[in-house]
Amino acid sequence: MIRYLQIAVAAIGLLIIFLLQRYSYAAAWNTLVPQLLKIDNTNLIFVFNKTLRLIFNDLLCMQLIWSLFQHRKYLKLAFFLFLVELVIVLPIYFLIKLSVEGATEISSPLLSQVHRMVVNPLLMFLLIAGIVYQRAIHSQK
């Protein structure tokens, strides 16, 4: 029962993040702790919002992967994949996005697909499909 509750919490959390994709985490940050760091640059607001959204998505995806498979090796794989996404892929996306199009929410067709892969939990779905496929192949042997 706890496993199904964890799956539901992760799925509902991902849905909430999707529904609030236009929510400004930077504005909330500026309201709650403006004395710590004021985020008022357009590019910085864009980077802050997308990075926080990615981190929330990845944490919920890791919870979903743990709830579905309950194997530490899958959780470690997800962690390292999401770490590469956060440390390598996301900065490259920001560099290209901000230099070519600026901090607009509308992207060109190519960057739109990269945006879906980076900021949205597309990698999680690919990872889950890969794990299911690997387990299916392994169980046939």
Number of self-contained structural domains: 1
- Report the sheet-strand fraction: under 5%
Distance between the termini: 31 Å
Q: Which outline best applies? A: globular
Main structural class: mainly alpha
Number of strands: 0
Q: Name the helicity range.
A: over 70%
> What is the rounded Rg?
17 Å
Largest sheet: none
Quick check: average pLDDT?
Answer: 86
Number of helices: 6
Ranges with pLDDT <50 over ≥5 residues?
none
Q: What is the N-to-C order of secondary-structure elements (H for helix, E for strand)? A: HHHHHH
Task: Provide a compact summary of the structure.
By secondary structure, this protein is mainly α.
Explain this structure.
The chain is mainly α and 141 residues long. The protein has one domain. Helices cover 79% and strands 0% of the residues. The protein has 6 helices and no strands. The chain has helices at 2-19, 25-32, 42-69, 72-100, 109-118, 122-140. It is globular and about 55 Å long. The model has no long low-confidence stretch (mean pLDDT 86).
